[in-house]
Amino acid sequence: SSELTQDPAVSVALGQTVRITCQGDSLRSYYASWYQQKPGQAPVLVIYGKNNRPSGIPDRFSGSSSGNTASLTITGAQAEDEADYYCNSRDSSGNHHVVFGGGTKLTVL
Amino acid sequence: QVQLVQSGAEVKKPGASVKVSCKASGYTFTSYYMHWVRQAPGQGLEWMGIINPSGGSTSYAQKFQGRVTMTRDTSTSTVYMELSSLRSEDTAVYYCATLTGDLDYWGQGTLVTVSS
């Protein structure tokens, strides 16, 4: 099965831009989705597909992809963006399997 | 609005089984696959498997093959996840989720604690 690799922790100064990355072979074939998770809450989808935001997600969140790497960019990070972020994608082995990255803890300084 | 409502917290002894339910509402139940994802305390998200509510077909992560069974009841729009031979490492919050593009909805999570 596929694996997705994320940096365990990233920090950003308030109002600055931060990029969170996700690497894996499955990303050469499938787009990543990105989730935000705050303590004690279920994950919330922030980006899916090529670069789509669900209703209610601020436009400071954007996604991109190149080769085996997907990126989530937060332009003008806010204090409320401090959370864990997870990527996922379809597993390249098929059968609708899904794989998640290990997660990135984002700290807003 | 779409809702996935899961059953309540469970405490189980090692070796036992647990069955978690997830009742869907607000959309056509048979139109979207349902996934199960778990999260151990302080750990990341782990995909367990998927069920097609329409035909009932399933596919499981290799790690859980032989221990997990996913079923559905179309009459009540409910999916179930049963995990057997529980061990302490199975202590986690278990989520059902649609994970389908912008129809991405998650249940509130069910804490399963495995302890002797």
Sheet with the most strands: spatial strand order of chain B: 2-10-9-4-5-6
Query: Structural class given helices, strands, pairing of chain A?
Result: mainly beta
Largest interface: A-B, 24 and 21 residues
> End-to-end span of chain A in angstroms?
36 Å
Tally the helices of chain B: 0
Q: Helix share of residues of chain B?
A: under 10%
Quick one: how many beta strands of chain B? 10
How would you describe this protein?
The complex is a heterodimer of chains A (109) and B (116). Chain A is an all-beta fold and 109 residues long. Chain A is 0% helix and 45% strand. Chain A has no helices and 10 strands. In chain A, strands 2, 4, 5, 8, 9 and 10 form a 6-stranded mixed sheet that branches. Chain A has a 4-stranded antiparallel sheet with strand order 1-3-7-6, with no helix packed on it. In chain A, a hairpin with a 7-residue loop joins β8 and β9. Chain A is globular. The N and C termini of chain A lie far apart (36 Å). With 116 residues, chain B is an all-beta fold. In chain B, 0% of the residues lie in helices and 47% in strands. Chain B contains no helices and 10 strands. In chain B, the strands form 2 sheets. In chain B, strands 2-10-9-4-5-6 form a 6-stranded mixed sheet, with no helix packed on it. In chain B, strands 1-3-8-7 form a 4-stranded antiparallel sheet, with no helix packed on it. Classes of the chains: A mainly beta (109), B mainly beta (116). Chains A and B meet through β4, β8 and β9 of A and β5 of B.
